[in-house]
């Protein structure tokens, strides 16, 4: 599944076009994982993910898109679900695989671009996006939603956690509720719910940052 072999091995973007976030920062996502934990990498699953899982919101095969170092994927796998985590940051994927081995948890982690998910070659009942959607610009968001549609079951569910713009002190890339709904509507998705939530980060204290927890289904 790796997109980082052969002549592309020296390309920090693995042959893909850098995303808008990478063009803005001038760094590949992988650089976020060098020299210590990334700002979002709390070393624990997000409380919102744990709560949704406890309520039975994750079923069947699970895809965690932009899985980072795998805390959410590993938590879901520890509940007995088959989980694949994908990311473009090889360093994060290596950390996630090491955690899986150390904790004795069965989960797979692969280098796959979220904008080209059809490469995975299978569909999932539940897809988790924790902190990826909000890093994309509008054009990427539409490509991303189309990419997701290629790997979700017809009766599958997308669970998405992103920074919101409802209060000061939110994270980078805050998203408005209407903006989120509009992206889903024009991307061929049916919004089931968009609820206020919090995202834990390493720099927002115990309260975390204002967020949306959105649930959507392919329409
Ligand atoms: C804000 S971090 C969130 C990581 C993880 N979900 C978490 O909660 O800790 C966003 C993640 O998305 C990954 N990412 C960014 N663009 C991507 C793309 N086009 N395809 C796959 N992963 C991507 C980054 O490498 C990073 O790990």
TrEMBL record:
Q: InterPro entries, alphabetically?
A: Methyltransf_25, SAM-dependent_MTases_sf
Q: What are the residue boundaries of the Methyltransferase domain, all occurrences included?
A: 62-156
According to the UniProt record, where is the region Disordered?
Answer: 1-45
Q: Which Gene3D superfamilies match?
A: Vaccinia Virus protein VP39
User: What are its GO biological-process terms?
Assistant: methylation
Q: Name one GO molecular function term.
A: methyltransferase activity
Keywords, alphabetical: Methyltransferase, S-adenosyl-L-methionine, Transferase
Q: Which PANTHER family match?
A: METHYLTRANSFERASE, UBIQUINONE BIOSYNTHESIS O-METHYLTRANSFERASE, MITOCHONDRIAL
Tell me the protein's name.
Answer: Class I SAM-dependent methyltransferase
Q: In the record, what lineage is assigned to the organism producing the protein?
A: Bacteria, Bacillati, Actinomycetota, Actinomycetes, Mycobacteriales
